[in-house]
Amino acid sequence: MGKITDTLGLLVRTLRRFISLSFILAGIILFVRLYEMVITSNYYSYPPGSFSSLLLGIKYDIILYLRVSAVLMIPFLLLGLFSQKAARVFFISASVFLVLGDMLLLKYFSTAGVPLGADLFAYSIEEINQTVQSSGEMNVWPFIFMALFLVYIVRVFIKHVYYKLKPWTLLIISAVMFTSLAPLGFLKPQPSDFENEFSLYAATNKLNFFSESVLKRYVFNEQLDNQTYTFKTKVATADGSFTYLDEDYPFLHNETTPDVLGKYFEPLETKPNIVFIIVESLGRAYSGESAYLGSFTPFLDSLMDKSLYWENNLSTSGRTFEVLPSTLASVPFGDRGFTELGEDMPDHLSLISILKTQANYTSSFIYGGEAHFDNMDIFLKRQGIDKIIDNTNFGTGYKKMPPSATSGFSWGFGDNEIFRRYIDEIKADTASPRMDIILTLAIHSPFVVANQEYYISKFNERLEELELSEKTKNFNRNYQQQFSTVLYFDDALRYFFSEFRKLPSFNNTIFVITGDHRMPEVPISTQLDRFHVPLVIYSPMIKKPAKFSSVVTHFDITPSLLAMLDADSIISRPKAAAWIGHGLDDTEDFRVANAYPLMRNKNEILDFIDGERMLANKVIYQVYENMNIETVDEPDREKELETKLNNFLLKNNHAIKNNKLIPDSLKVYTYRGQ
Length: 674
Hints:
43% of the residues lie in helices and 13% in strands. It has 674 residues and is of the alpha/beta class. The protein has two domains: 2-222, no CATH class; 234-593, 3-Layer(aba) Sandwich (Alkaline Phosphatase, subunit A), CATH 3.40.720.10. α15 crosses α17. It is found in: Cell membrane.
């Protein structure tokens, strides 16, 4: 009996020491929040109104403290039964590690504008290093501060005072700590409580966000492995239905995409050249009529008036990694993005391979950075691309973008040089027909371009021209460097078309212009805003320009181009395909006619849009005509969308892991099948 009493006494004393240490940890976590409120938010120009969100975030810091304490309590108590010193060393080591993680995640958020989640593990060390350098935030002083702060933390823990709390008080505090682990809604920030997405993430504890993202990513995927997808032969679409053909090929359907583009074009008498201009970080928030931050692309805006223009187009991901597979091949995401599969990409159809095999098109890709980033080069070679030009073989006579003043890093060649290099290329290589892809670079951290002072001056002039509220103007002024690169791109695009018009091939070329995603460094307003990018199809062969308000995605581009080329007998398209897209919707009024999955980051497929409802990280929203969204209380519809997204993930996993996108009979349309 005495031994049990002694053990209980030791357990109580150990728990008292643990609670005392945990109070210090709570104070340190709150100090990190104070640092963000006073120092970080001002240094990185958080938007007006952020202070109240940061203040509200104290609640979520306390929840993090409670959760961390609950996780550390049991091992601390077990160690304490054998060695009080070992238990203390364990707690101090774990606390220092967690606080360091919290501070590094805060630094990432302050630079990128979005918190870091499980997508961290989808990048190689080389890619992470390149991204960190590109941020321009290589200043050593924040890291010196972190190191000194961590040393101070250790000293505080060593010199700490034990609180003589009553046993019943210890039990109550312990119960609260373990209760914090429950999946209760009020324990996490609710989107409806915040004005925009940035405010939501400013309030969120960054370490808590990262931890939940990692748990969702890996635990949820394990659950998917034990499920099977639901297969339906017919699924309704905007203009009829997809007729699926084989349960073992879950995306394979009859290829009946309607030709919506043909009526806007003169008849295609010869094989047209096709040029994709994919613009880094070109969001609708700051491009095109009614852009809510004002449009900083005046030339592109003028081009929209002569084009087929979809003002409500969505990228399929919140980063560049998915833009090529979605726009050129309309394929599912795979586990971490289609290109991340590398040489293990399943057999698939694409615009490049079909034009190559059916109409003898030559193709090229030009980019100012490294084409191997995100495995873009591997993906393009699978399509049979004829030439890749990147900063490893760009040639002489072209200037890279100025390096960041802090890190000395430059991604590579700026947009004007990319366009100039392409013009020089096609002047020298007159092969026709062509299908070329240009990926720009300038609208990207560290946002440094040639003649930047001129473009900052131009930004201020443009800001005064736009009919914006003073609140919006003041907001924009916080991001003049970012917007200066948008204006730089627009000037480069003006140069591109002025030069291209001089070429004989201009009159027989179709230009497809779109953004890969919206720029996160300018705070994002909603979960849908990150995907909202313009889509412009311009050509001298267009006989009837038009603007459409229907919602479409990058998935829809390739099916529609092939449908038009097939209708004009340029190619004979496959009778079956595994496109995710339904084809472009040319309805002039607002509507969301189809359903699409969206992948905000590598490792995270959390979003699904279906009609005028959007599911974003298990929260359901109404989608409005201006592409704003608002939470709605529709539990049945929310459950329906969760089921649809889950079913897509199951089909995605099966098709990718088992090479079940297309059967052998369709491989004649692929480069490898020739």
